[in-house]
Structure formats: structure tokens, C-alpha cells
Amino acid sequence: MPVKILADSACDLPKNFYEEKRVHLFPLKVEINEQEYEDVKTIDPKTVYDAIRSGVVPKTSQVSPLLFEEVFTEMAEKNEDGIYIAFSSELSGTYSTAVMILDQVKEKYPNFQLTIVDTKCASLGFGLVVQEAARLASNNAAKEEILEDVLFRSQHMEHIFTVDDLDYLAKGGRVSKASAFLGGLLNIKPILNMEDGKLVPIEKIRGKKKVLRRLIEIMNERGSKLQEQVIGISHADNEETALEVKAMIEEEFHPKEVYISSIGSAIGAHTGAGTISIFFLNQLPS
Fold it and tell me: CA 28 → CA 41, 42, 92, 112, 235, distances in Å?
């Protein structure tokens, strides 16, 4: 029996991926105007971005503990072996809740073989890890081989992104309101990355074209053998810029593939519309 792969919706992969690759989806929750939705399943990113543009501040919450309990118990009863690849524990309580529920389920089913991995990744950086795990599982790879790959990619995945509107990061407490005001006046765009699972601003650049060029420069500085990689781009209702970045990456690095996805509802609720993110490895598996 192949190893079962499970992932939560913060990996920003499209709905059909889970169905086609037989990956079990745990949806995070998004609340808009006191109405709660399940990311990927009952809400699409465009709805979130339209709400944000109309002045609504969406709220998000982690995967339901009850859902973890139901799925883990069913797997234990069927004697299924699995790997749950989880959203960064620094950005959500989902990972720690899953670990707690697994411990409870194992009290009743001590032989249950489920491994939970804290990727310290987010969005499509997390998604690229999940995609490769699903590919390995579909080829009947051993659990140890899949786990080794998941851990390696998680540790070496670069997340480089820029947001369109500093005001939205200010609402979430990511930057000061004064910085956001000045940023808007001067057309200053921040570049951020992930460090040990946390969002960390690294630079501020004036003007969209300069920002996009700088993203490509950072890829060149940090990436390894980019021509052999699948590069990820995720965007928040900004496909035009995503395609522009894809063309720049293809011209500069000639990668194996450039995969574009929309930033999902749960992550997009915090980034706001216009965000562009690039994901690649700083070291390749041997």
C-alpha cells in the first residue's frame, strides 16, 4: 500500500491537485463578514481579495482539531501509513494541534504510523515540497525516502516575495503605519523572505520594475543549479505580473519548469492582493 500523503491548504496548490494526486487536504478556515469558509473547498482566493478591496479584513483560523481526529482515527483503523506535511509552526497553530491530536489517537491505536513534518514553509514553497512527496508516493517510494526528501526540500526552500500594498501589512502589524504611509507616497515595495519559518523583511526597493529585477538577482545569489529545478511563483490576484516574472526567470535561468499558482484564501487574507512570491532551492538533493 502506498504511503498516504496529507497536507493543509496553506501549500496553495489547486483543488484538482489533491483529487488527481490522492493527497488528503486539511483546509484552514477563512472568515469574512462573520461567515466561515473552508480554504480551497468552499471559498476561492478571488472572493478574499475582492473582500479586502472593499475594506473587509478577513480572519483565518487553523485546521479543525475534530477533522484531524476523524482522519487520523480512520487511517489508524485501516492500518494506513502516512506523512502529514504541515504549514510552518511559526505562522499557524495547525502543526502543534495535529501533533496533539496524533498523540491522543495513538493512545487508542499505539501502532499507528503517521509522521507529521513541520516544513517551516508557506504558500507554494510548501506546495513544491508536497508535490514532490506526492510524486514519490505515487511511484511507491519507501516512507523513509519520502521523508528524507520532504525534510531536505523544507530546509533548503527559499521564499522571496514582495507585496503590492504596505498598508495591508500594516493592518496585520507587519510594518508600522508610518512606513506604510511613506511607502505609498514613494512607491517603495518591501522584499521579504522566510527565516526559520518566520516572515522577515530584507530590503525596500522603489518602483515595481526594480523590485522584479531584484527578485531575479536574489534568485541568482541564493539559488543552486536553477536550470535543473521546478521554480514556483505564486500571486495574489496578479497573474499578469506572475507571467512577467516567469518570462524573466526563463530568460535568465532556463529552469526545468516554472509552476504558477494563486496564493490561496488563508495566506492571501494576510498578504492582501498584488503579492508576488518566488520559490526555489538553495541546494539540490544529491
Answer: 10, 11, 10, 24, 19
In terms of DSSP bridges, do strands 82-86 and 257-262 run parallel, antiparallel, or are they unpaired? unpaired
- For the chain, what percentages of helix, strand and coil (3-state, to nearest 5) are there? 45, 25, 30
Q: How many residues does the chain have?
A: 286
User: Do the beta carbons of residue 13 and residue 261 sit within 8 Å?
Assistant: yes
**What tens digit of pLDDT does each residue of 248-286 get?**
999 999 999 999 999 999 999 988 889 999 999 999 998
Please report, as a single letter, which amino acid is at residue 124.
Answer: L
Distance in angstroms (rounded) separating the CA atoms of residues 188 and 169:
13
Shortest CA distance to 285 belongs to which of 159, 149, 85? 149
**Cα distance between residue 87 and residue 138, in whole Å:** 22
CATH number of the 157-281 domain? 3.30.1180.10
Residues of the chain with CATH 3.40.50.10170: 4-156
CA distance 244 to 162: 14
Q: Read off the pLDDT of residues 125-179 as tens digits, 9 standing for 90 and up.
A: 999 999 999 999 999 999 999 999 999 999 999 999 998 766 665 665 545 554 5
Domain 4-156: assigned CATH number:
3.40.50.10170
Specify which residues 8 forms β-bridges with: 26
CATH 3.30.1180.10 domain range(s) in the chain:
157-281
Measured CA to CA, the distance from residue 127 to residue 121 in angstroms comes to 9
Measure the CA–CA gap between 254 and 228, rounded to whole angstroms: 8
